[in-house]
User: Which sequence fits this backbone?
């Protein structure tokens, strides 16, 4: 493992990269996942590598939506498993969600490895692995359409960190409420989701866990209020504006 000096200006970002590389070496992450992370990093750089107030608003709405859901599911891919395995398990516990492995680049070995990794971080059950419960989403072609009939297939709300656009759109067509975590406010996933958290998953999941604890103390009416007052399109537009402002600022310094 490479030693990262704590005074390095990109220390945190380098630590996150190390986690992904470790995940890659363990077989959790595919090469395409490393490159997808790079795309996210570029947007994070523009955001100043911090959670904006707009993302905080989306986090509040997303967490309230998960708490109000009847059958919420957190979908996990290789990058998510490598970066925030413990946080996924903790958040699922706080909001009463199931965890399902759902991969863009599928292989039964990697599905199993990711499930075991989550179990080693405290998950009691991980769906998406057993073939006997496999269902297909007709809206997607190819083997990427596989979901678990006990999980995403039956869910009303699905949290999809770092998802691809086709599947997000397919989940919407199936009538699911979709919550995305995506650093690119212009991606198809960000645009198609009901609630998009434009933030790095390594920052947003801990904030969601805290929010879930806070929101579970308040009445259901208050939680519903947080959901009603949210406009995803507006939030995304303001986030792009925030990025523009940051670039303008940077261009003058
Ligand atoms: P779409 O198909 O939705 O238009 P895409 O093809 O750009 O998206 P993918 O490569 O399928 O995206 O998925 C990667 C997405 O995840 C990118 O939009 C990237 O910004 C985002 N991303 C990568 N790493 C992180 C991270 N650590 N936190 C949040 N988002 C991330």
Assistant:
């Amino acid at each position: 493992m490479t030693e990262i000096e704590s005074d390095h200006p990109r220390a945190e970002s380098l630590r996150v990269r190390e986690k992904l590389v470790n995940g890659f070496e363990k077989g959790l992450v595919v090469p395409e996942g490393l490159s997808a992370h790079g795309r996210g990093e570029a947007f994070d750089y523009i955001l100043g590598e911090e959670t904006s107030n707009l993302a905080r608003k989306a986090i509040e709405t997303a967490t309230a939506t998960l708490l109000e859901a009847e059958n919420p599911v957190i979908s996990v891919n290789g990058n998510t498993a490598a970066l925030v395995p413990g946080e996924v398990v903790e958040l699922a516990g706080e909001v009463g969600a199931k965890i399902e492995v759902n991969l863009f680049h599928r292989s039964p070995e990697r599905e199993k490895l990711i499930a075991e990794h989550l179990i080693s971080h405290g998950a009691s059950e991980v769906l998406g692995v057993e073939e006997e419960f496999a269902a297909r989403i007709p809206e997607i072609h190819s083997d990427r359409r596989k979901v678990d009939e006990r999980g995403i297939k039956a869910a009303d709300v699905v949290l999809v960190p770092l998802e691809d656009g086709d599947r997000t759109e397919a989940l919407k067509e199936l009538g699911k409420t979709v919550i995305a975590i995506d650093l690119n406010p212009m991606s198809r996933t960000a645009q198609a989701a009901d609630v998009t958290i434009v933030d790095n998953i390594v920052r947003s999941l801990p904030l969601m866990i805290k929010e879930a604890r806070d929101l579970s103390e308040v009445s259901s009416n208050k939680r519903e209020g947080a959901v009603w007052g949210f406009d995803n399109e507006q939030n995304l537009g303001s986030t792009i504006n925030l990025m523009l402002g940051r670039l303008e600022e940077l261009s003058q310094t």
Q: What stands out?
A: The two ends are 35 Å apart (CA to CA).
